[in-house]
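Figure S7 source data.
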Amino acid sequence: MSLFTKAAVLYEKGAKLILDEFELPDLQENQVHIRILAAALNRRDLWIQKGLYAKIQYPAILGSDGCGIVVNVANKEHNHLLGQRVIIHPSLFWGDNDKAQGTSFQVLGMPAYGTLAKDIVCNYDRVYLAPKHLTNEQAAALPLAGLTGWRALIRQGKAQNKHKILITGIGGGVALITAQLAIALGCEVWITSGDEIKIQSALSMGASGGILYTDPNWGKEVHKTMGGFDCIIDGTAGSEFNQLLEAVKAGGTIVNYGATLGTVEKLNIHRIFWKQITIIGSTMGNDEDFSNMLDFVALKHILPAVDSVFTLQEIDNAFDKMERNKQFGKIIITMEDM
Ligand SMILES: NC(=O)c1ccc[n+]([C@@H]2O[C@H](COP(=O)([O-])OP(=O)(O)OC[C@H]3O[C@@H](n4cnc5c(N)ncnc54)[C@H](OP(=O)(O)O)[C@@H]3O)[C@@H](O)[C@H]2O)c1
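C-alpha cells for the predicted NAP complex:
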C-alpha cells in the first residue's frame, strides 16, 4: 500500500523548496520507516539548492540530519527499534577503507531522499539510538556536523588533552560542535569569527581565545602571542588559508574539511615545507567514527548548540538565515506540528 508524506522538495536548480505530498518508497528488506521529529540544515543543502554541487538529481529531498521515531520495520529482527527515538548516520556506503570513503559513497539527502520531510525510509544500519540527554532538536543538530568534527579533530588531527587547537569560522555548524568536542577533550581551544558577538559566545562556552578573521595579519599575530597551534581545523580555505600557515606551530597539522571561501590561490608553499606542516583533508566519517562520536557526546554530556527552530513551512526563512551566516549553532526544522 502506498504511503504519502509531506516533504520540502527541490524540483530544479535555484528554485525554492516546495512543500509537497510525496510518495514514500516501499520498505525494502533491512529498511525502517522513521517519523521525523526534527531535522537540521547544513551548508550542503544550500549549495545543492543553488545548483553548486556535483551530480544533483531532481526531485531532491534535502536534509542530512534527522531525529525521529521508528514507526515500521521491514524485518522482524529489527522490532526492538519500534517506538525508539533515533538519529540517522548520514554517511551512506562508505566502504571498507578507514582512510577514505569509496567511490559508492553518498551523503544522506540527495540522491537518497533526506530528512526535510515528515517521514523517511532508510537502511537499518544507518539508525542509532538518539543520545538520551538530548532534546529532539539537539539530537537533530548532531549527526553530520558532529561526525565531521569528530573525524577531523580526533582521527585526522590526532587532538589530545592540552593540545592547542584553532577552529575557524565558529558560526559554522561543524566548527561549533568541533569546538565543543575539543573543549570536552581538555584542549586549549581558540576560534576565529567575523563577528565579535560569536567570539564572546564561544568564550562563554569554554574557548580560551577568539580572533577576528577580518584583521589582515591575524595569523602572524596570534602565533606571536601564544606560540602557535598544534592543530587547526578549517572549513573555510580560500584567501584565509595562508593565515593558517602562519598561525600553526612548526611541525603542526592543518585539517581541512571544507572550502566556504573557495579554492586557495597563491598558496604560500614555502611556509609549508619550512615549517614542516602536515595538511590533511577530512570528509564526514565512517561507522566507527560515528559510534565513537556518539559515545563521547554521551560520556561528556555535550549539548549541540541550536541557533533557531523553524517549521517545515518556514524552510525559506531557514535557508535565508544560513545564507546570511547569522547563525551560532544549528538551524533546526521541526516536524512535530505536522
Ligand atoms: N567535508 C565534509 O564532510 C563536510 C561536512 C560538513 C560541511 N562541510 C563544508 O564545510 C564548510 C562549513 O560548513 P558548515 O555547514 O559547518 O558551515 P556553515 O554553518 O555554513 O557556516 C559557515 C561559516 O563560515 C564562516 N566564515 C565565513 N567567512 C569566513 C572567513 N573568512 N574565515 C573563517 N570563517 C569564515 C562563518 O563564520 P562566522 O559566522 O563565525 O564568521 C560562517 O558562519 C562548508 O563549505 C561545507 O560545505 C564539509
